[in-house]
Write a structure and sequence with these properties.
The protein has about 160 residues and is mainly beta. The protein has a single domain, classed as Sandwich (Immunoglobulin-like), CATH 2.60.40.3340. Helix content is about 10%, strand content about 45%. The chain is built from 1 helix and 10 strands; from the N terminus they run αββββββββββ. It is globular and about 45 Å long. The N terminus is likely disordered.
């Protein structure tokens, strides 16, 4: 009969999400966002062109600002994109929000609820749950009647 040590599992689990590498995550588990070179600088609004060039994504606001650990609320504006120019607002879209920590290989334990707002093309995303310090890549996938597109917002969440 084989038994598994709960202590061994806990140590391995903590090691998988701990620091231990040079760079933004220090050996003590703290995160130094000042040296994170792939994160977006938070400014509102923050514009992103969709990866397929079909849609424009504008992060209008974040509460808290800049995004922080745990629950965040984002207001996003999505518009059609033609020849690099934002056009008509996208309404009635199906949107998924997927926060992911590339360095640790895991996502968020909470799903965001998407609410279409009264202003055409604007959506509230809550909670965008960022459970721990480090770099988070939050992918916004949008599907409309005319197709789909996505954008990635990258924010470093500092320790403490």
């Amino acid at each position: 009969m084989r038994t598994t040590s709960l202590l061994g599992f806990t140590v391995l689990s903590l090691a998988a999400c701990g620091g231990g590498e040079a760079g933004p995550d220090a050996d003590d588990g703290s995160v130094n966002c000042a040296v994170e070179t792939t994160a977006d600088t938070f400014v509102a609004p923050l514009d992103k062109m969709g990866t397929d060039g079909k849609l424009s994504f504008r992060l209008l606001s974040a509460t808290p600002a800049p995004p922080a650990r745990y629950d965040n609320e984002w207001t996003l504006q999505i518009t059609q994109l033609a020849n690099g120019v934002a056009g008509a607002p996208v309404t009635g879209a199906t949107i998924t929000v997927s926060p992911f920590m590339p360095k640790h290989g895991h996502g968020s334990p909470k799903d965001a609820v998407i609410t279409e707002l009264s202003t055409a093309g604007e959506y509230k995303l809550t909670p965008v749950y960022l459970s721990m310090p480090g770099l988070w890549e939050t992918t916004i996938n949008v599907t409309t009647a005319s197709g789909s597109d996505s954008a990635i917002f990258r924010f470093c969440i500092p320790s403490g």
